[in-house]
Amino acid sequence: MRLIKNKSIVDKNIDVNIFATLIQTSFGIGFIPFASGTFASLFAVLFALIPGFLDSRIISLSLIFYIIIYSLTIKQFLAKYGKDPAEVVSDEVAGQWFAMLLPVLFTNISGVNIYLFISVSFLLFRFFDITKITPAKIFDKMNNGFGVLMDDMVAGAYAGISFIIFHKLFIILK
Question: Do the beta carbons of residue 129 and residue 160 sit within 8 Å?
């Protein structure tokens, strides 16, 4: 995690189209000089407030579509900004959505307060994204588009599974 970001090396000879920039920086969030990953995760949880977004089909299709667009645009961004540029925060959005998707798929969150759900999901994802528990650490060291995305998907998986466990324990202890 980079709270205060180091400026990425920029190859001024490479043009990155506006679409790739909007996707990879999550509409410019990646250019925030501090905690841009946290802001991107907050951006991602705001989608949960859109009616219907937490329907398993909607969030699944959104995540798949987002990963496809990420995959199509990451190469030119990495070519311009380096192997793991701080400006790329699209991986945080995908990881956060995955953290919310798993509880939607594998537990009944209908009785859970939406604000509690997104808050706990956000905190768990940020914890696992920052700590980079293996295999996230392995992906983080890959320094390519796949590794950039996968370390956050692993963090999202850890966060989603943790939420499911906490939710099940809460029901049992209630």
Answer: no
Token reading at 75:
């190469």
Domain range list for the chain: 18-173
Residue 4: phi and psi, rounded to 5, are: -105, 120
CA atoms within 13 A on the CB side of 104: 19
> 4 pairs with which residues across the strands?
34
pLDDT in tens, the chain (174 residues): 445 556 566 777 788 889 999 999 999 999 999 999 999 999 999 999 999 999 999 999 999 999 999 999 998 888 888 877 889 999 999 999 999 999 999 998 888 999 999 999 999 999 999 999 999 999 999 979 999 999 999 999 999 999 999 999 998 887
Torsion-angle region of 112 (φ positive above 0: left; ψ -120 to 50: alpha; else: beta):
beta
How far apart CA 28 and CA 83 sit, in angstroms, is: 19
- In this structure, the number of other CB atoms found within 10 A of the CB of residue 35 comes to 16
Strand, helix or coil at 115? helix
